[in-house]
């Protein structure tokens, strides 16, 4: 299974043959992406440079295994200002020179895509849409439930605390100060902690999203 901006969880929502991506699958995708990035950074000492949902390959027969594709291709081409589709860190002026910290920014955007169900730089045909800023504005105004993908609620999932904690982790990865962003291996540990703290995502639509509003005070939401 390939996650792309036109497949899961974003885009093409009216397709009859599309399988909705539940919260547990999204958490696994976030963990797999973090694992892959941590491996590149710590084992090989390499930055990926092109982290985005279309480069995250999930194996249907191994749900906890994944691969990050397109590593190093950005170094073969001249830098294009619009390259990255909303994933690239603001300080990255030369796309051929990614850093560990610019990778972490891209990972944060990927997490937001999983949480919100929105493409990073295009929603409802608006090519000026900026996903991180949209999320930060909602958090600033305490509209935390509005951040989460409506499809998750339609599936009847009740995982508000996990959603809020992954959202907080995404915001940390998007820190405008590169040195303040977490290391990839710390992100892996945090996601594993979130999953172990709350266990498997449960079903049952009785709780709604009201509890998320109480968590908004702990999220840094200043654009």
From TrEMBL:
It comes from Eleusine coracana subsp. coracana. It comes from the Eukaryota. GO terms for molecular function: ATP binding; protein kinase activity. Signal peptide: none annotated. Residues 1-201 form the Protein kinase domain. It holds the Pfam family Pkinase. Residues 202-211 have a biased composition (Gly residues). The lineage of its organism: Eukaryota, Viridiplantae, Streptophyta, Embryophyta, Tracheophyta. This is Protein kinase domain-containing protein.
């Amino acid at each position: 299974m390939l996650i792309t901006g036109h497949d899961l969880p974003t885009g093409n929502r009216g397709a009859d043959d599309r399988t909705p991506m539940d919260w547990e699958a999204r958490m696994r995708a976030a963990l797999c992406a973090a694992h892959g990035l941590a491996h590149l950074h710590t084992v090989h000492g390499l930055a990926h440079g092109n982290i985005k949902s279309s480069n995250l390959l999930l194996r249907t027969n191994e749900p906890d295994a994944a691969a990050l594709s397109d590593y190093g291709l950005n170094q073969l081409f001249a830098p294009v200002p619009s390259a990255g589709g909303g994933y690239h860190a603001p300080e990255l002026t030369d796309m051929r020179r990614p850093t560990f910290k610019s990778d972490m920014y891209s990972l944060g955007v990927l997490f937001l895509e999983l949480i919100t169900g929105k493409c990073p730089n295009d929603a409802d045909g608006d090519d000026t849409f900026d996903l991180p800023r949209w999320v930060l504005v909602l958090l600033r105004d305490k509209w935390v439930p509005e951040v989460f993908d409506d499809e998750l609620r339609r599936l009847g999932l009740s995982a508000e605390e996990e959603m809020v904690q992954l959202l907080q982790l995404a915001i940390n990865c998007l820190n405008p100060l590169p040195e303040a962003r977490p290391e990839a291996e710390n992100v892996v540990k945090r996601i594993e902690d979130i999953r172990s703290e709350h266990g498997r995502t449960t079903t049952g639509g009785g709780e709604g999203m009201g509890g998320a509003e109480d968590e908004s005070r702990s999220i840094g939401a200043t654009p």
